[in-house]
Design brief:
It is globular and about 55 Å long. The protein has helices spanning about 15-25, 40-45, 65-75, 90-95, 110-125, 160-170, 180-185, 190-210; strands at about 5-10, 30-35, 50-55, 80-85, 100-105, 135, 140-145, 150, 155, 175-180, 215-220, 225-230. It has two domains: about 5-125, 3-Layer(aba) Sandwich (Rossmann fold), CATH 3.40.50.2300; about 135-230, Winged helix-like DNA-binding domain superfamily/Winged helix DNA-binding domain (Arc Repressor Mutant, subunit A), CATH 1.10.10. It contains eight helices and twelve strands. The relative contact order is 0.10.
Length: about 230
Amino acid sequence: MQTSKAKILLAEDDLSLGYVIKDNLVDAGYDVVLCPDGQAAINKFDKNEFDICLLDVMMPNKDGFAVAKKIRQQSDMIPILFLTAKSLEEDRIKGFSSGADDYIVKPFSMQELLMRIDVFIRRSKKMYSDQSVSFTVGKLKFSYTDLKLTINGEIFNLTQKEADLLKFLCEHSNRILKREEVLLNVWGKDDYFLGRSMDVFITKLRKHFKSDPEVNLETIHGVGFRFNVPA
């Protein structure tokens, strides 16, 4: 699947499952570092450069949420994908709030995991390309390439998923967007749990928009959203 070896940090305390995942990822062309617990994952991340992190949630010596927060302190760029048996809505929301870009619930198919990884790797390659992607929305300046939002001189770092969502909104400003349209284009599919996760990201973005009264993300009840910006 990959023409060059992207490097993956895999944290999974069930080593039998971990080796199965690792073997499949290696067969697909990835370079994989497997860690048996959260602290080991943090130690490896501190000493190596990775292209994506796959984190189990329930692990000894720091859980996946703690590992994600630690990674986010060092990098807003690297994609984080949770692999977990925890499927409750509050667990998903906590995962996204701790910095995750995606969330896949066990048991999952390797094909689905490979497809999701491939999406993030391709997006990362686009971001690191020579072409810069940026938007000016009212008083807000948004660099999709650098994952940064500048408001009145103050710079805010965005996660990859926040940037993906804001980019889609900027590209389709001042028009009604259906919820399923946003989910399909930003998350790749439309389901209830991803919809709730999207609401978390929208709440985060709205906090930034408060600095400019001419910019707002309006909820169209029963339909979706409209990103209202100055003409």
